[in-house]
Amino acid sequence: MDNENEMINQMVNENPPEPGKKFNWGTFFLGVVAGAFLSTVVFSVSFALVKHESAPYTVTTTKVDNNDSKSAKEDDTEEQDEDSKTDEYESVVNDETMAKLQLLEQTIDEYYIDSENVSTKTLTDGMYEGMLDSLGDVYSVYYTEEELTALMEDTNGIYYGIGAYISTDDTTGLPVIAGVMDGSPAQEAGLKEGDVCYKVDGKLTESMTLEEFIRNVKGEEHTKVLLTIVREGESDYLEIEVERRQIQTPTVKYEMKEGNIGYIQITEFDTVTSDQFTEALVTLKGQGMKGLVIDLRSNPGGNLDTVCEIASQLLPKGTIVYTVDKDGNRVDYNCDGKNEFDMPMVVLVNGYSASASEILAGAIKDYEMGTLVGTTTYGKGIVQRIIPFSDGTAVKLTVSKYYTPNGINIHGTGIDPDVEIEYDPEAAENGVDNQLDKALEIIAEEIG
């Protein structure tokens, strides 16, 4: 890793659910207005590959001996099909493919029923997307300029918008306010949960996707957006003008539980998350915390730098995580151990705890710093890198696998909890979180 391209970023997120899997917050968090994060998406991009000198951890690079039998090589050598290898890469950009592209373009123009509405940009973006799709890797994708801009806003955790959560109304199919952030422009303007957005700046929303609606709500700081609202109990439309301001996505929530047990929930690892976690940890310690529960349930992952910063506030001296690329280059992320956590700790995980969440959970488990409670994690042990181009577009490619301190790659298998307990949805309807209760019980017993 070098400094020549600071726009390249390591990512350890974006976990499209496997068939039958769905993040339990679904489309709710799809629309943090002007900063929707998906992984799902989530997309955690700070666009800084090399850590600053002030980082609480260090990075070292070594070369892995491909003859070694360490776990990093096992996955690669066993899964490769020797017959599919070629001695040299043969470029697909040649006279033959260019001629075929021209033929396809002419054929579309001549025969496609709606060809007059197909733009050149749509076709070219489709070609680029198709090349990435051909890799058969759901994590390797092409970003248009607009998508990359939105991605940067989303994953930095700071954006210019109104501070509302957006979902889709089940009855009308229109965008609906699913919630507003405390102190946000949306709250100040009087927007309420359940408000259906009929128009945005005079444009009907019925023909917009949720993403298109969000893009219309986004804008430059201190500009205004006019929302035409349908509110239950009101006979007329409401016209509500909201000023766009800088919004910081809250990714950390915390409170002190009974028995002086601290509780910190991390919803994703954005560039703002480390500072938010530090504030939570310092505050809880100041309140006399005797033990800590870290809730990583349904956390899809995020920024590699961020999770290493947080891990450095908890782990002893040693490796937090390491990655190995296709050429055998190993990169270790190391903690100096100066802030090693010295209280009982439990980490809550489930099948939607992925990527960066698994890095933190895996390190805590390997160092026996805490107890993992819940269900087996998602199992994403690969790292993506975003590589931008001069035209404002970019590609995201899977570039390496990551390993826990004990050399375990959890891709496709996940991390098993120390104490397995399924979430009880029926109990949750009565306000009982049985997994959290179990975590608190374990901490209380350790405190004595």
UniProtKB/TrEMBL annotation:
GO terms for biological process: proteolysis; signal transduction. One of its GO terms (molecular function) is serine-type peptidase activity. The keyword Protease applies. Keywords: Hydrolase, Membrane, Protease, Serine protease, Transmembrane, Transmembrane helix. One of its GO terms (cellular component) is outer membrane-bounded periplasmic space. The chain crosses the membrane at residues 25-50. Belongs to the peptidase S41A family. This is Carboxyl-terminal processing protease. It comes from Butyrivibrio fibrisolvens DSM 3071.
